[in-house]
Amino acid sequence: MYRILIRPILFRFDPENVHHFTFKWIKILAKLPGFSRLCRALYDVNDPRLEREVFGLKFKNPVGLAAGFDKDAKLFNELSDFGFGFIEIGTLTPVGQEGNPKKRLFRLREDEAIINRMGFNNGGVQEAVARLKKNKGVLIGGNIGKNKVTPNDEAVSDYKICFEALFPYVDYFVVNVSSPNTPNLRELQDKKPLTELLATLQTENQKRPLPKPILLKIAPDLTNEQLLDIIEIVQDTHIAGVIATNTTLSREGLCSPNKSEMGGLSGKPLTHRATEVIRFLHEKSNGSFPIIGVGGIHSAQDALDKLDAGASLVQLYTGFIYEGPSLVKAINQALLARMR
């Protein structure tokens, strides 16, 4: 129904406006008696065989919603009704910011992809905290970044502020240094600044009676040598794992007329590269840390391929927009079918 009826209508309008429109109507519908129950009946696959224990957390199933969709933690309770095992909010920054000028979100229909140059638009970490206090049992990841105006040599402070504010309200953290839409942010992926950032957050983490998993989200555009550095950094700083991957700057093989828009590309064109990065990290690290696989998952087979490559969990974003919530159900059903 989504692909045949709903998507063609939504895709007639500006994607950012559609995003806000959809959030508004899901909020309204969720207040109607029985709507949440209906969503769960349609999309939620409730089976203990789908449960996964990863970096000390118990996930009801391995399919999550990636960061960027519910940036400000406005809809995580309602989105969980579509069958997700976990929801990642953010990227959040210490102070709210508008992000980059509009228009900044583009559908590449012929390629089943999206280009975004949002620029960490969000209301700030404290606004999200106020909403997270109303969590009804959803497993939440907190994706954190730095404000655009914060220079890289002061970035650690921004990440610490977000870490401290979110600590009581999220189950795991994701350090985002891989978005291509904040100027110079990806320079923090270099070995020295990244090691310093992660070590600082781990020091703060270990001061807590119950530390929480910290993960690093990386770009798909890293070379093999840089990926080997990532493995070394993860092992040296003892963070919990890696999310592979963020959006790409590559435009190879695209055919959509708006393929040259600036920003990060997500969707089907990223499918192979994201899986390739997962496999490289898993094999070269001898599976020494968990990986959450994200990038170009538009079918159950795409998700299975990432799990087979070494991912412990997967996340959806662009595939969810193109395929709808039935994709979550299809992945979980495919996993159960493998167990027969």
Automatic annotation (TrEMBL):
Residues annotated to bind FMN: 67-71, 91, 143, 176, 217, 245, 267, 296, 317-318
Positions that bind substrate: 71, 116-120, 176, 181, 246-247
InterPro entries named among the record's database cross-references: Aldolase_TIM, DHO_dehydrogenase, Dihydroorotate_DH_1_2, Dihydroorotate_DH_2, Dihydroorotate_DH_cat, Dihydroorotate_DH_CS
Single GO MF annotation: dihydroorotate dehydrogenase (quinone) activity
Coiled-coil positions: none
Protein keywords: Cell membrane, Flavoprotein, FMN, Membrane, Oxidoreductase, Pyrimidine biosynthesis
Quaternary structure and partners: Monomer.
Family, per entry: Belongs to the dihydroorotate dehydrogenase family. Type 2 subfamily.
Protein name per UniProt: Dihydroorotate dehydrogenase (quinone)
Natural source organism: Flavobacterium fontis
Gene field: pyrD
